[in-house]
């Protein structure tokens, strides 16, 4: 019996050991498989990290390159300033001034021109010509007034009557809001604005007279107006021209100023010249940086004669101020897409008879926001300005006189 029991016991335990052994093998196989899967996933994750990690050093590299390019662009070498000045600097007569040496180089100017100033200004024009809901007009215009210091007491119509920003910016004044000096020997301010520059046109090089952009920076009169006035041609000078000089005055209009331009004297306007151009800003920073800024920018010049000879008034556009309108040409437009290929050209119109003549105080032109008006005129050599740079001007007040 004992032997039988041993036999039974042996027979009974053998399958159990086998099962346990199989379980251990199965568990070992499962663990091995799981470890293998985990390793594959870890490898895939690591590979994914390495695959994406190139973006970080690449972005850092591009950022560094951009920074270095920006640094070199803003810090040209002395050699670059000497040998590669902006084209307008190279065209100036005589030696360059110390200040002109510090202005934008050819490469810097090319970089500035990459920004689509004309298109951006047209887009802004479309925005401020959109009709505003009646409920938004007064709050929006009052906010603009608060920021830029407009004088709403002088405007002719109530705020709600200006359907869009464009109408508000070029709003007319009440009758009698400005009184014009009527002395025929006085030149009055054609705008509300600030004096940027005044002086005598530099005729040390008679063939290439120059104007002052800011102290130490010049630009050519012939390029600004399209030609040199006959005053500088000795074969066309009259005996009475001997005791005369050519003067200039630059007036800046801020966004809060009255934006219409009036005749500063009684004069016969013979010609309009339109120069499609860029629309750089015309603030002090731009005037110090960009050579011949007023030649680069879009402008409209009215040329004619007054009692002492040549007289011109030029409205110069700026960023977001590319639209210049003329009172005697309702259909005239500037900064249109069709004019883009004509940048740098001169489009001339000759007025027939006395159709464009103006009397002191007559409205002549307007533009949006603010920009610059440049007067270039002939006067006796005893003419004297009664203003100085930095003065705030009121339309109609005297800016100079012949004693």
TrEMBL record:
<keyword id="KW-0594">Phospholipid biosynthesis</keyword>
<protein>
    <recommendedName>
        <fullName>Phosphatidylserine decarboxylase proenzyme, mitochondrial</fullName>
        <ecNumber>4.1.1.65</ecNumber>
    </recommendedName>
</protein>
<feature type="site" description="Cleavage (non-hydrolytic); by autocatalysis">
    <location>
        <begin position="370"/>
        <end position="371"/>
    </location>
</feature>
<keyword id="KW-1133">Transmembrane helix</keyword>
<dbReference type="GO" id="GO:0005743">
    <property type="term" value="C:mitochondrial inner membrane"/>
</dbReference>
<feature type="topological domain" description="Mitochondrial matrix">
    <location>
        <begin position="1"/>
        <end position="56"/>
    </location>
</feature>
<keyword id="KW-0456">Lyase</keyword>
<keyword id="KW-0670">Pyruvate</keyword>
<dbReference type="Pfam" id="PF02666">
    <property type="entry name" value="PS_Dcarbxylase"/>
</dbReference>
<keyword id="KW-0472">Membrane</keyword>
<dbReference type="InterPro" id="IPR033661">
    <property type="entry name" value="PSD_type1_euk"/>
</dbReference>
<comment type="pathway">
    <text>Lipid metabolism.</text>
</comment>
<feature type="compositionally biased region" description="Low complexity">
    <location>
        <begin position="9"/>
        <end position="36"/>
    </location>
</feature>
<feature type="active site" description="Charge relay system; for autoendoproteolytic cleavage activity">
    <location>
        <position position="371"/>
    </location>
</feature>
<keyword id="KW-0999">Mitochondrion inner membrane</keyword>
<feature type="modified residue" description="Pyruvic acid (Ser); by autocatalysis">
    <location>
        <position position="371"/>
    </location>
</feature>
<dbReference type="InterPro" id="IPR003817">
    <property type="entry name" value="PS_Dcarbxylase"/>
</dbReference>
<dbReference type="GO" id="GO:0016540">
    <property type="term" value="P:protein autoprocessing"/>
</dbReference>
<dbReference type="GO" id="GO:0006646">
    <property type="term" value="P:phosphatidylethanolamine biosynthetic process"/>
</dbReference>
<dbReference type="InterPro" id="IPR033177">
    <property type="entry name" value="PSD-B"/>
</dbReference>
<comment type="subunit">
    <text>Heterodimer of a large membrane-associated beta subunit and a small pyruvoyl-containing alpha subunit.</text>
</comment>
<comment type="function">
    <text>Catalyzes the formation of phosphatidylethanolamine (PtdEtn) from phosphatidylserine (PtdSer). Plays a central role in phospholipid metabolism and in the interorganelle trafficking of phosphatidylserine.</text>
</comment>
<feature type="region of interest" description="Disordered">
    <location>
        <begin position="1"/>
        <end position="39"/>
    </location>
</feature>
<feature type="active site" description="Charge relay system; for autoendoproteolytic cleavage activity">
    <location>
        <position position="192"/>
    </location>
</feature>
<comment type="similarity">
    <text>Belongs to the phosphatidylserine decarboxylase family. PSD-B subfamily. Eukaryotic type I sub-subfamily.</text>
</comment>
<feature type="topological domain" description="Mitochondrial intermembrane">
    <location>
        <begin position="76"/>
        <end position="403"/>
    </location>
</feature>
<keyword id="KW-0444">Lipid biosynthesis</keyword>
<dbReference type="GO" id="GO:0004609">
    <property type="term" value="F:phosphatidylserine decarboxylase activity"/>
</dbReference>
<keyword id="KW-0210">Decarboxylase</keyword>
<feature type="active site" description="Charge relay system; for autoendoproteolytic cleavage activity">
    <location>
        <position position="262"/>
    </location>
</feature>
<keyword id="KW-0496">Mitochondrion</keyword>
<keyword id="KW-0865">Zymogen</keyword>
<keyword id="KW-0443">Lipid metabolism</keyword>
<keyword id="KW-0812">Transmembrane</keyword>
<comment type="pathway">
    <text>Phospholipid metabolism; phosphatidylethanolamine biosynthesis; phosphatidylethanolamine from CDP-diacylglycerol: step 2/2.</text>
</comment>
<feature type="active site" description="Schiff-base intermediate with substrate; via pyruvic acid; for decarboxylase activity">
    <location>
        <position position="371"/>
    </location>
</feature>
<keyword id="KW-1208">Phospholipid metabolism</keyword>
